[in-house]
Amino acid sequence: MEFKLEAHRIVSISLGKIYNSRVQRGGIKLHKNLLVSLVLRSARQVYLSDPCPGLYLAGPTGTPAVPPPQQPGEPVAGPPSGWGEPPPPAGRAAWPEPEPQPQRPVVCHTPGAGSSEPLSSGAGDALRGEETDTAAAAWSRVERPRAAASGGGSDTCPEGPRAVRRPCGCPPTREEQPVEDGSPAPTAPCPRKRGAAGVGGGRAGCPAPGSTPLKKPRRNSEEQPSTTDEDTDEEMETGNVANLISIFGSSFSGLLRKSPAGGREEEEAEKSGPEAAEPGQICCDKPVLRDMSPWSTAIVAF
Amino acid sequence: MPSHRMPSEADIISTVEFNHTGELLATGDKGGRVVIFQREPESKNAPHSQGEYDVYSTFQSHEPEFDYLKSLEIEEKINKIKWLPQQNAAHSLLSTNDKTIKLWKITERDKRPEGYNLKDEEGKLKDLSTVTSLQVPVLKPMDLMVEVSPRRIFANGHTYHINSISVNSDCETYMSADDLRINLWHLAITDRSFNIVDIKPANMEDLTEVITASEFHPHHCNLFVYSSSKGSLRLCDMRAAALCDKHSKLFEEPEDPSNRSFFSEIISSVSDVKFSHSGRYMLTRDYLTVKVWDLNMEARPIETYQVHDYLRSKLCSLYESDCIFDKFECAWNGSDSVIMTGAYNNFFRMFDRNTKRDVTLEASRESSKPRAVLKPRRVCVGGKRRRDDISVDSLDFTKKILHTAWHPAENIIAIAATNNLYIFQDKVNSDMH
Q1: Fewest C-beta atoms under 10 Å: which of A65, B133, B240, B259?
Q2: Over the stretch A187-206, which tens digit does the pLDDT of each residue have?
Q3: What ipTM does this complex have?
């Protein structure tokens, strides 16, 4: 039981660190956040695997009622999938920055060109973290960089306000909602990744604003008959933490990889992106996001 | 020399490095400044001030930048300074922040030409009608002026934050490492670099480790090592392949299962790696220990020294305070017989590899009057407490010694304690033993 308390505390602390890292000067430190995510994963495992009756959470990984501890032979689950290029500071943008050609041994740099590599679709959660609540505020805040960024690379998406972008890499619309392919948008359509992102969507889908999500979040689709997290309210507000963890679990596919079914599905969805130089995106549904507290929304955004 | 301005975050020293002779000592700080100290030649006239370091030059190396495309501020903090081997009268060093490496040339001017025909003393053109004869300008001595100029700027090579730079023994190339990649540069070419290590996974969700430090071998220009956040070291040979993703040797110690905790992974992350001067060994620092590795043995380090094992039971609160992420450096002495690293409470530790004795010393104004002898300190962990012991709970974790350097030949050490630089000299045992 003490382990659970400790694990809970560590989860809270870790989430706070991840959240704060988005506002620190100099950008997100990849090393530190990787370490924090490893701690988070360990704490979460302990929290979930402690066989206390009634504390079972809605299976984010589709695992049975008492999830077994991770087998030593299992591949190391990666960190949260928000491991795209370090996302900009909080509220600014949900979009990771572009990625230089990594595979060539010789990288030519012309002055200033280094930053204007093709805009990739970026990694998982940074995309999903389109905090529409804060996007409106961020929209006005990033107006200024737009002028400066107009000289971006030719095959990048027009560098509109970075506050909001569709997961497929297309520039945002005025409503700052992801739109389906073909919908009129005030900015030029993005040449990349429309197919993978728009059609059918799956994990990478861009649900139309306000419409029913094309695919339910992972935890529901794999849900086994189980107790919900709401009735496990202990004195430590596990309900809230359970929410966080279940969202957490569905968001970070690296952690999900422990579950064979979930992992495979995730991988397939990611591989569906043809031009994916970057890892594929995993969209979490807006309605789900909106139901969460701002705290957990921020974590998912990361 | 301690900073005389009001202490501010910009004054926090972020790197310390002696040059190859030990005559010069460079420090970088969070404000992007570099301060170079020079050792005064020992003179018979003033024997009490022999060999002390005075400020030689100060310049602004890096400025804060804003990357508009990524909406990211780039800190001006100097992460590392590395001296180039001296090839002429000038000195050169490389300094780097998170994104950009700069080559600085430091020259002295102690003479100036006088007696120009066409210009007067102030440099104004003379009235030609007053010039009746020609003279040859002569060089006259002047007050020493140290001039620093940026000779090369190596920009746009890194997406992630640069953590190390290392000059090759060939004196022509150097490498820079960020979290996921290592690039090889030629000192004369700024518009391109070779990527020699790339551990970025195709799917970033698979990321499990990052590069934390890297260094060229001191003698073999084809060999370099890089350390990872998982506690492993990889020795790579540039002659084996253009892309050194496959290591030649992997140095890794299996984890002790009895020490497993939530924070095992964090404390095993290597924060610094240094080749010995001989090139035979490597020194690594992780959160609680320093380890000596033999290049010929990959299975485990040959020596492990506990820096502050009493912190092992406090990892959770150190995690909360972010102290667990502190990156301590380590250093060899000139003869590779003693290793040194910093700790908290402005303590630093030295381990003698031969005698197996270790000592804890403190860098503070109170205990370091000029020419005073440093008193060994002790942290008590319960049990008998001696008079001057410090208890673990009263350690000041805001006073951390992350950066230390050892003179290449003599027993002189430079210790950076937040915004103060301490230089200690062992007069009694000046020669290496």
Answers
A1: B133
A2: 444 444 443 333 433 344 34
A3: 0.89
